[in-house]
């Protein structure tokens, strides 16, 4: 007689298509990038072995070190801004308020646009001569927000939050709707109001969602490229040259694909390590329940 677990557990063949796809489009390119990081190649002809020259140059490159710090800064700003806003909006959107569906649909519009379209839109809106700064000098000062280090970093953080907060709001909305209503009923019986229910019921139940959302923000922040390319091009100077943009500069402007591959590998390692630390510290990997946070 077949055991119940054997009947319900899918066979390995079910995982074969996904495994082949992942190996072909994730593992193999990553291995090739790792190999290329030990070569010298300008994009033409055959790569030549360079040993650890690319890695040695990277360790002593002040622009690379600065780009890692800027990537971390923008990522941290994204998490600090997007998490509370998307959490509160997601919990609100999970309710049954009047006109909730219409307002939610309007709010999700930025999510439907590409990062390139969003960057072009905000570059036009923030133009110091014809955009919002020209119409409201009392708010924007001289209007050249992208001309200063703090202004450029602030714009990048704002534009990223404007586009991607709706995605994380959607995650929190789904997580909030999955919370059993009996928990709120029990809290109400105990005399807990809306604020206490949020802190003691909603937030603990959304722990897994918070971890998932944060990991997506971290990976997205470390790999941001097109927004920087269109809005600041790494400027002023190198004040917004994050690692992903510096990788582009090394590969497609300096034609140093070996060095660019080393930068790419550093980004992969950093993003992976941060994700693993988040999973370990949050206890996400120890969650055994099928319900959110249980």
UniProtKB/TrEMBL annotation:
Signal peptide: none annotated. Its main location: membrane. One of its GO terms (biological process) is transmembrane transport. It is found in: Cell membrane. PROSITE patterns: ABC_TM1. Residues 68-278 form the ABC transmembrane type-1 domain. It comes from the Bacteria. It is a multi-pass membrane protein. Gene3D superfamilies: MetI-like (1.10.3720.10). One of its GO terms (cellular component) is plasma membrane. CDD domains: TM_PBP2 (cd06261). Keywords: Cell membrane, Membrane, Transmembrane, Transmembrane helix, Transport. The chain crosses the membrane at residues 12-38, 68-93, 105-125, 145-164, 257-279. Belongs to the binding-protein-dependent transport system permease family. PANTHER family: ABC TRANSPORTER PERMEASE PROTEIN, INNER MEMBRANE ABC TRANSPORTER PERMEASE PROTEIN YCJO. This is ABC transporter.
């Amino acid at each position: 007689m077949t055991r119940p677990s054997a009947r319900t557990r899918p066979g390995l063949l079910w995982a074969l298509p996904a495994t082949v796809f992942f190996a072909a489009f994730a593992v193999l390119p990553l291995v090739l990038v790792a190999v290329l990081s030990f070569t010298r190649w300008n994009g033409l002809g055959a790569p030549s072995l360079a040993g650890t020259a690319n890695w040695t140059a990277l360790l002593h490159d002040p622009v690379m070190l600065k780009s890692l710090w800027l990537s971390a800064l923008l990522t941290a700003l994204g998490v600090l801004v997007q998490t509370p806003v998307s959490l509160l909006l997601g919990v609100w959107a999970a309710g049954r308020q009047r006109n909730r569906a219409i307002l939610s649909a309007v709010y999700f519009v930025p999510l439907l646009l590409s990062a390139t379209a969003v960057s072009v839109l905000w570059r036009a809106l923030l133009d110091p001569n014809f955009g919002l700064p020209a119409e409201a000098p009392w708010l924007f000062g001289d209007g050249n927000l992208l001309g200063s280090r703090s202004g450029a970093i602030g714009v990048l953080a704002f534009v990223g939050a404007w586009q991607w907060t709706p995605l994380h709001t959607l995650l929190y909305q789904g997580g909030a709707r999955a919370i059993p209503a009996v928990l709120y009923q029990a809290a109400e019986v105990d005399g807990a109001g809306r604020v206490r229910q949020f802190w003691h019921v909603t937030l603990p139940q959304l722990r897994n969602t918070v971890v998932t959302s944060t990991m997506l923000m971290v990976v997205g922040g470390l790999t941001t490229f097109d927004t920087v390319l269109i809005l600041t091009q790494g400027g002023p100077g190198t004040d917004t040259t994050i690692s992903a943009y510096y990788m582009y500069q090394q590969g497609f402007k300096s034609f140093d694909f070996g060095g660019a591959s080393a930068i790419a590998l550093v980004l992969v390692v950093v993003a992976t390590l941060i994700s693993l630390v988040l999973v370990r510290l949050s206890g996400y990997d120890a969650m055994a329940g099928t319900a959110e946070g249980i």
